[in-house]
Design a protein that fits this description.
This protein has 134 residues and is of the alpha+beta class. It has two helices and four strands; from the N terminus they run E-E-H-H-E-E. The protein has a four-stranded antiparallel β-sheet with strand order 1-2-3-4, with helices on one face. The relative contact order is 0.21.
């Protein structure tokens, strides 16, 4: 008899507005411009708590909003972290790192508990970068 392993995923989202330019890009994105970014944080796991939840949405949503508020209405090139090239990929990495600093219990440990799986950053409705947390 085989055991069925379930994988659950929850996702929360928020948004922020910021300006940036890509210093090492040759095209229109090398000029200062702005985006209304949409950000998704995905948490996965195969164990539910006593209440039947993988993770409390409100706790993750609060943390994601807190992290994105650090970027909201700034020129992202002013952040040393992005090294003058705040691409959507680097923004997603930054957000994931900041979530894990605030919620270290979401680090993947292989025991089936909830872990931060990915962060998506949309620059537009049709352009997304995803950082998958390894």
């Amino acid at each position: 008899m085989s055991t069925i392993v379930c994988m659950y995923e929850v996702r929360v989202e928020t948004s922020f507005s910021a300006a940036h330019f890509l210093q090492d890009y040759h095209g229109k994105c090398e000029r200062l411009h702005g985006h209304n970014y949409k950000v998704y944080a995905h948490v996965r796991g195969n164990a539910l708590d006593e209440g039947g939840m993988l993770l409390d949405f409100s706790e993750l949503k609060h943390t994601l909003r807190e992290v994105c508020s650090l970027l909201d209405h700034y020129n992202l090139n002013d952040f040393e972290y992005f090294r003058q090239n705040p691409s959507a990929e680097r923004i997603a990495t930054y957000i994931a790192t900041q979530i894990l600093e605030r919620m270290p219990f979401l680090k993947k440990n292989g025991d089936g508990t909830a872990f931060l799986y990915a962060v998506d950053v949309f620059e537009t409705d049709t352009s997304r970068a995803r950082y998958i947390v390894e």
